[in-house]
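Dear colleague,

As promised, here are the two records you asked about, laid out in our usual form so they can be pasted straight into your sheet.

NAME FIELD: protein one
SEQUENCE, THEN STRUCTURE:
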Amino acid sequence: MPEGEDLERLAATGATLAIHLSVRNLSFVRRALEPHYGPKCPVVVAIRVGWPDEAFIEGTLADIAAKVRAAKVTRTALILAGPALAAQGFEDSALYSADHVHVLRPGKKAKAKAVRTTDP
Protein backbone atom coordinates (compact mmCIF):
# COMPACT_ATOMS: atom_id res chain seq x y z
CA MET A 1 0.00 0.00 0.00
CA PRO A 2 1.14 3.59 -0.49
CA GLU A 3 3.04 5.20 2.37
CA GLY A 4 0.68 6.49 5.05
CA GLU A 5 -2.19 4.25 3.92
CA ASP A 6 -1.51 1.17 6.00
CA LEU A 7 -4.46 -0.81 7.29
CA GLU A 8 -3.84 0.12 10.93
CA ARG A 9 -3.95 3.83 10.12
CA LEU A 10 -7.14 3.45 8.11
CA ALA A 11 -8.76 1.42 10.91
CA ALA A 12 -7.90 4.14 13.41
CA THR A 13 -10.47 6.37 11.69
CA GLY A 14 -13.28 4.03 12.76
CA ALA A 15 -14.62 3.95 9.20
CA THR A 16 -16.13 0.89 7.59
CA LEU A 17 -13.46 -0.49 5.27
CA ALA A 18 -13.59 -2.35 1.97
CA ILE A 19 -10.47 -4.47 1.70
CA HIS A 20 -9.51 -5.98 -1.64
CA LEU A 21 -7.12 -8.85 -2.38
CA SER A 22 -6.75 -9.99 1.22
CA VAL A 23 -9.08 -12.95 1.75
CA ARG A 24 -5.99 -15.14 2.15
CA ASN A 25 -4.62 -12.73 4.77
CA LEU A 26 -7.51 -12.61 7.22
CA SER A 27 -5.16 -13.17 10.18
CA PHE A 28 -3.25 -10.03 9.23
CA VAL A 29 -6.50 -8.12 8.70
CA ARG A 30 -7.72 -9.18 12.14
CA ARG A 31 -4.47 -8.11 13.83
CA ALA A 32 -4.61 -4.72 12.09
CA LEU A 33 -8.27 -3.97 12.79
CA GLU A 34 -8.97 -5.55 16.17
CA PRO A 35 -7.19 -2.91 18.30
CA HIS A 36 -9.45 -0.26 16.75
CA TYR A 37 -12.74 -2.14 16.32
CA GLY A 38 -12.60 -4.98 18.85
CA PRO A 39 -13.10 -8.71 18.23
CA LYS A 40 -16.90 -8.38 17.89
CA CYS A 41 -16.66 -5.97 14.96
CA PRO A 42 -18.92 -7.17 12.13
CA VAL A 43 -17.28 -8.45 8.96
CA VAL A 44 -18.79 -9.56 5.65
CA VAL A 45 -16.80 -11.40 3.03
CA ALA A 46 -18.48 -10.89 -0.33
CA ILE A 47 -17.59 -13.63 -2.80
CA ARG A 48 -17.90 -13.34 -6.58
CA VAL A 49 -20.39 -10.47 -6.33
CA GLY A 50 -22.45 -10.11 -9.46
CA TRP A 51 -21.79 -13.68 -10.59
CA PRO A 52 -24.52 -16.35 -10.48
CA ASP A 53 -22.70 -18.08 -7.60
CA GLU A 54 -22.19 -14.98 -5.45
CA ALA A 55 -22.17 -15.54 -1.71
CA PHE A 56 -21.76 -13.59 1.51
CA ILE A 57 -20.16 -14.87 4.71
CA GLU A 58 -21.04 -12.86 7.80
CA GLY A 59 -19.10 -12.94 11.02
CA THR A 60 -16.88 -10.92 13.31
CA LEU A 61 -13.18 -10.19 13.36
CA ALA A 62 -12.87 -13.03 15.85
CA ASP A 63 -14.53 -15.74 13.75
CA ILE A 64 -14.51 -14.71 10.07
CA ALA A 65 -11.22 -16.46 9.21
CA ALA A 66 -12.57 -19.82 10.39
CA LYS A 67 -15.83 -19.31 8.47
CA VAL A 68 -14.01 -18.38 5.28
CA ARG A 69 -11.63 -21.32 5.67
CA ALA A 70 -14.58 -23.70 6.20
CA ALA A 71 -16.21 -22.35 3.02
CA LYS A 72 -12.91 -22.88 1.15
CA VAL A 73 -12.84 -19.32 -0.17
CA THR A 74 -9.40 -18.39 -1.48
CA ARG A 75 -9.98 -15.61 -4.04
CA THR A 76 -12.46 -13.31 -5.81
CA ALA A 77 -13.69 -11.89 -2.51
CA LEU A 78 -14.05 -8.50 -0.90
CA ILE A 79 -13.80 -7.98 2.86
CA LEU A 80 -16.07 -5.37 4.43
CA ALA A 81 -15.36 -4.55 8.07
CA GLY A 82 -16.62 -1.88 10.41
CA PRO A 83 -19.28 -0.87 12.88
CA ALA A 84 -21.74 0.35 10.22
CA LEU A 85 -22.39 -3.26 9.21
CA ALA A 86 -24.23 -3.78 12.51
CA ALA A 87 -26.18 -0.52 12.48
CA GLN A 88 -29.82 -0.83 13.52
CA GLY A 89 -32.72 1.46 14.25
CA PHE A 90 -32.40 3.79 11.29
CA GLU A 91 -34.79 4.50 8.44
CA ASP A 92 -33.77 3.11 5.05
CA SER A 93 -32.95 5.64 2.37
CA ALA A 94 -35.90 6.67 0.20
CA LEU A 95 -33.69 7.92 -2.65
CA TYR A 96 -34.85 5.22 -5.06
CA SER A 97 -38.42 4.99 -3.78
CA ALA A 98 -41.09 5.75 -6.38
CA ASP A 99 -42.60 8.22 -3.89
CA HIS A 100 -39.37 10.21 -3.50
CA VAL A 101 -39.45 13.50 -5.39
CA HIS A 102 -36.29 15.21 -6.60
CA VAL A 103 -35.08 17.24 -9.56
CA LEU A 104 -34.87 14.23 -11.88
CA ARG A 105 -38.16 12.75 -10.65
CA PRO A 106 -40.62 15.63 -10.22
CA GLY A 107 -43.71 15.15 -8.08
CA LYS A 108 -47.32 15.05 -9.26
CA LYS A 109 -47.75 18.82 -8.85
CA ALA A 110 -44.80 19.55 -11.12
CA LYS A 111 -46.09 17.09 -13.72
CA ALA A 112 -49.60 18.53 -13.58
CA LYS A 113 -48.24 22.08 -13.95
CA ALA A 114 -46.15 21.01 -16.95
CA VAL A 115 -49.25 19.55 -18.62
CA ARG A 116 -51.28 22.76 -18.04
CA THR A 117 -48.61 25.01 -19.49
CA THR A 118 -48.48 23.00 -22.71
CA ASP A 119 -52.27 23.02 -23.25
CA PRO A 120 -53.52 25.61 -25.81
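NAME FIELD: protein two
SEQUENCE, THEN STRUCTURE:
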Amino acid sequence: MKKRIITLSAVILLALAPAATIFAQPNPGQNSDGGGVGGGPIGGNAPIGSGMVVLLALGAAYAGKKAYDVQLKK
Protein backbone atom coordinates (compact mmCIF):
# COMPACT_ATOMS: atom_id res chain seq x y z
CA MET A 1 0.00 0.00 0.00
CA LYS A 2 2.83 2.39 0.86
CA LYS A 3 4.51 1.71 -2.48
CA ARG A 4 1.26 2.52 -4.31
CA ILE A 5 0.92 5.85 -2.51
CA ILE A 6 4.51 6.82 -3.32
CA THR A 7 4.07 5.83 -6.98
CA LEU A 8 0.75 7.65 -7.26
CA SER A 9 2.14 10.81 -5.67
CA ALA A 10 5.17 10.74 -8.00
CA VAL A 11 2.93 10.36 -11.06
CA ILE A 12 0.68 13.21 -9.93
CA LEU A 13 3.69 15.44 -9.24
CA LEU A 14 5.20 14.75 -12.65
CA ALA A 15 1.85 15.33 -14.34
CA LEU A 16 1.22 18.67 -12.62
CA ALA A 17 4.77 20.08 -12.74
CA PRO A 18 4.52 21.41 -16.35
CA ALA A 19 1.27 23.17 -15.47
CA ALA A 20 3.08 25.29 -12.89
CA THR A 21 5.22 26.93 -15.57
CA ILE A 22 2.17 28.10 -17.53
CA PHE A 23 1.34 30.73 -14.92
CA ALA A 24 4.83 32.25 -14.75
CA GLN A 25 5.18 35.89 -15.75
CA PRO A 26 7.52 36.81 -18.60
CA ASN A 27 11.03 38.04 -17.91
CA PRO A 28 10.92 41.82 -17.28
CA GLY A 29 14.09 42.32 -19.31
CA GLN A 30 12.41 40.97 -22.43
CA ASN A 31 9.36 43.24 -22.27
CA SER A 32 10.87 46.71 -22.09
CA ASP A 33 8.50 48.11 -24.71
CA GLY A 34 6.30 49.88 -22.14
CA GLY A 35 3.86 47.01 -21.64
CA GLY A 36 2.28 45.95 -18.39
CA VAL A 37 5.26 43.96 -17.18
CA GLY A 38 7.93 46.12 -18.81
CA GLY A 39 10.98 47.69 -17.32
CA GLY A 40 14.70 47.97 -17.68
CA PRO A 41 17.12 45.10 -17.53
CA ILE A 42 17.37 43.21 -14.27
CA GLY A 43 20.23 44.55 -12.16
CA GLY A 44 20.23 47.98 -13.79
CA ASN A 45 23.27 47.34 -16.01
CA ALA A 46 25.48 46.80 -12.96
CA PRO A 47 28.97 45.54 -13.86
CA ILE A 48 29.93 42.23 -12.30
CA GLY A 49 33.68 42.49 -12.88
CA SER A 50 34.48 44.35 -9.66
CA GLY A 51 32.24 42.02 -7.69
CA MET A 52 34.19 39.04 -8.98
CA VAL A 53 37.46 40.64 -7.87
CA VAL A 54 36.06 41.14 -4.36
CA LEU A 55 34.81 37.53 -4.19
CA LEU A 56 38.13 36.16 -5.42
CA ALA A 57 40.07 38.27 -2.91
CA LEU A 58 37.86 37.16 -0.04
CA GLY A 59 38.18 33.53 -1.13
CA ALA A 60 41.96 33.80 -1.28
CA ALA A 61 42.06 35.40 2.17
CA TYR A 62 39.85 32.65 3.59
CA ALA A 63 41.99 29.92 2.03
CA GLY A 64 45.13 31.61 3.36
CA LYS A 65 43.72 31.73 6.88
CA LYS A 66 42.72 28.06 6.69
CA ALA A 67 46.23 27.13 5.51
CA TYR A 68 47.76 29.22 8.29
CA ASP A 69 45.58 27.50 10.90
CA VAL A 70 46.64 24.08 9.59
CA GLN A 71 50.31 25.08 9.87
CA LEU A 72 49.79 26.21 13.48
CA LYS A 73 48.30 22.84 14.44
CA LYS A 74 51.39 20.99 13.13
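A couple of things worth noting about protein two: The two ends are 57 Å apart (CA to CA). The mean pLDDT is 78.

Best,
R.
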